[in-house]
Amino acid sequence: MKTAAKRIAIVGGGPGGLYLAALMKQLDPAHDITVWERDAADVTFGFGVVFSDETLGGIENADPEFADAMARRFARWTDIDIHHRGESHTVGGQGFAAMSRKELLGLLQARCRDLGVVVHFSTPAPDIVGLRASHDLVVGADGVNSLVRQSFSDVFRPTLDRRHNKYMWLGTDRVFEAFQFFIKDTEWGTVQVHGYPYSDSGSTFIVEMHEDVWRRAGFDTAQEFAPGVSDDRAVERIRELFAEELAGHQVFANNSKWLSFTTVRNERWHHGNLVLVGDAAHTAHFSIGSGTKLAMEDSLALAACLHEHQDVEAALTAYEAERRPVVESTQRAAQASLEWFENIGMYAHQEATRFCFNLLTRSRRITYDNLRTRDSDFADRVDAAFAASQGLPGTAPAMFQPFRLGRLELKNRVIVSPMDMYSAVDGVPGDFHLVHLGSKAMGGAGLVMTEMVCVSPEGRITPGCTGLWSDEQRDSWARIVSFVHERSTARIGLQLGHSGRKGSTRLMWEGMDEPLPDGNWEVVGPSPLPYGPGSAVPREAGRDDMDRITAEFVAAARRGAKAGFDLLELHCAHGYLLSSFLSPIANQRTDSYGGSLHNRLRYPLEVFDAVRAVWPAERPMIVRISATDWASGGNTEHDAVEIARAFIAHGADAIDVSSGQVTADERPAYGRSYQTPLADRIRHEVAAATGTAVIAVGAIASYDDVNSILLAGRADLCAIGRTHLYDPHWTLHAAAEQEYRGAGAQWPVQYRAGSRKPPTSRTDAVRPRLSLLRADLPDRNVHLRWTPRNQLPEFSEEPQIARSI
C-alpha cells in the first residue's frame, strides 16, 4: 500500500533506530528521515549480538541485501556447554547465530548513508515537543535510559524494575565453539559467565553474580566511571578469577563496568505521533536473547504498520497491538530466566545432569520435549538421573513415576486441583459431584482433590458450596469416596476451609466475589477490612469466634476421616479466613495475632495443630498457601518460605503452592506455569531438606510442562485444574501420547479399547515440521564464513513474530 511521504525524526542511532530508518527509506525514498545519536559513530556497548532464525527470516524478507551482508559475518553454533563443579556437559541441537555489534552498527550506518538517511552522531536530539510539532512521526529508540520516555513518563507510565544481580559485559579472543555457561563456586558465592562466539576472532564474555556475592568479593567500589571508561580494576580481577576458563586468552573491555539489569515496561508505547521501540519501550534479560533482536523486530513491525496505514496514529496502534503480546511473552520468559540466575546458589546441590536440565529449562521456553527433539541422548541422561534420584527403576515419564506422600502411595504425580463447583444444596454434594470427581479419578490422575469443603454454613463462599458440618454431608461424601476407591486406582483428598471475608457471595457465574442480593450471612475476618470495593465488611474475629471456628474445623476433619478421605488439605490460600490471617493486607490486628509474620501465623497454626491431632496419623495432611499476594504491602515469596517453614515444622506432609486472590487490588504476572517459580523456591530453600513434598499449580497445561517441572526438581507433584475440566481423562491421554502403558496410567477395563495413541497425535504433528526446518537449513548456510560443529535451526515453542514487508 502506497502511503504519503513522511517527515520522520528518530532519536537514537542504535540498531533499532538505524534499521527502522533504512526500512522506511526503502519503502519510500521520498520519506525525509533524520536520526540523532548522542554518541560518536564508533561508540558501542558490548561485543556480540544474538539472533533467532525467526528474526533473521523477517530481515531477509524485508531487505535481502542487508540480510546477506549480515549472513557473511555470522558465527553459527548448535551446542550449549555447561561447566560446573569440575564437569562439562554438552547439549546439542540448539541453533544460534551471532555477529559483532560493532560490525552490525557499521552495516546499518552504511545502509542508511546509501539510502540517503541523515544521521547526526555526537549530537543530542532537539527538544521532543518541537520535533513532534515539526515532524509527522517521532521515534524514541534511545535505549534503556530513554530521554524520550522520561520526557513523556506521564503518558507512557513506565515501570523500571532494577534487578539483584550485577553483570559486566566483556569480550575475549578465545573463540568458543558453543554457547558456554561457566558456573563457578567461589568463597564468596556462585559466579557465572555467559559466553558465545560472534566471529572467527572473538567471543562475548558476560560475568554475572548476585549483588551480595559481588559485595563479598570486594567489587563494590565507590568509584564513578565516566561514559566510555571501563572498570579496569574489576576487569583485571575477572581475568584472574577465570584464568582457567580463558585458557591463556585475553579479556577485552569496551565501556565495561558493573551494571544492574533493569526490566523496563511501559503501560503505553505510543502517544499521538510519538512511539517507543526497543529498550526504550521494553527490555528482556540477556540470558534469553538479545535486546538488539527485539529492537530490530520492533522496527520491522513498525515499518510494516506505517506502510499499511495512511494515518500515523492508526499505524502506531496496530504496531503496539502486534508487538506487545510477543514482547510480553518474551519478558515473561526473561523474568523467569533472570530470577533463576539470581537464585542460582539454591541449585548448587543438584546432581549435575539435573542441574543442567534445570538451567536449560529455566525460562520455560525450552522444555523436556524440546530437548528430546534436539538431543535425545541428553534427554535419556535426564530421565536416568531423575529415576536414580527417586530410587526408582525403569524409564517411565517423570509424571508417571510413583510418589509416596507421607504414608500414602500415589500411582503417579498428577493431582486434580481443587475447583469450586458451586453446585451443592445445603452443603450436600450430590450426583453432580459424584460424576465430576468420579470421572477425574477414572481419568488417570494419582490424586483427586475436592473443592473447598466448608466447615460451617457461615464459612461458605456461596450458597452452592459443599460442607462437612453435618452427618448428611459426611454420608454423601462417603458415597463419592467409595466410588473413587472401587472404580479407580486414584486417591481422593479433602480440602477444608472457611471463606472468611470472602463469604456470602453469589455463584461464580452470577458475579464472582459479588455479595448476595439477599439472604446474606455475616462474614468474619482478622480485621474489619473488606476484600474489595462492594464487598461486605467483616466482623473482626474475637477469641470466641476463633475458638468456635477451630472447633468447626476439627469436627469437619473427623467427619472427613470417617467418610474415608485419603488426605486432608488445609486451605490457607486465596484470601479465605486462614489466608487472610497470614496476609498483612487483610490482617491489621494489634494483638498477638497481628503485626509480625510470626504473629500472623499464630491462628492458622493453631487450626493446623487442632486438625492434625484428630486426623488419622497414617493419612497425610498438607497445606495450600498463597506464596505471594501480588500486591504492594502484601506477602512476598520471601514470606512464603517462612510460612512454609512454619507449617513443615508443625508436621505438614506437603506444601501446595498457589498465589494471590487475597485482595481485589492484586496484579498477578500471569503466564504459562507462572506460579512454578514460587514452588521451586520453597522446595529448594526449605522443603527438600526436610523431605516435605511441594506441589506446583497454576497454568500447567501440558504433559510436557509437568515432566519438565518434575525433572528439573522444581516440584514433586503437579496440580492441574482447568485442563481437567476440558478433558477429564487428560492424564490417560497424556500417557497415550507418550506411548506409556505402565502402572502409573492404568485405563479402566471398560475403556481399554480406546487406550492406543491416536494416529494424528501432537507428537506426530510436530516432528515432520522439525524435519522440514532441518531440510531448509543447507541453503541458509551458503554465505557463512565460520560454522563450527554442525548447524541446526533454533526451535522454540513460542516463536517470535517477524514481520515481512
UniProtKB/TrEMBL annotation:
Span of domain NADH:flavin oxidoreductase/NADH oxidase N-terminal: 399-735
Q: Provide the FAD-binding domain boundaries.
A: 136-331
Q: Which InterPro entries match?
A: Aldolase_TIM (IPR013785), FAD-bd (IPR002938), FAD/NAD-bd_sf (IPR036188), OxRdtase_FMN_N (IPR001155), YqjM-like (IPR044152)
Entry's CDD domains?
A: OYE_YqiM_FMN
Task: Supply the Gene3D superfamilies for this chain.
Answer: 3.30.9.20, Aldolase class I, FAD/NAD(P)-binding domain
A Pfam match? Oxidored_FMN
**Annotated NCBIfam families:** PRK08255.1
Descriptive protein name? Bifunctional salicylyl-CoA 5-hydroxylase/oxidoreductase
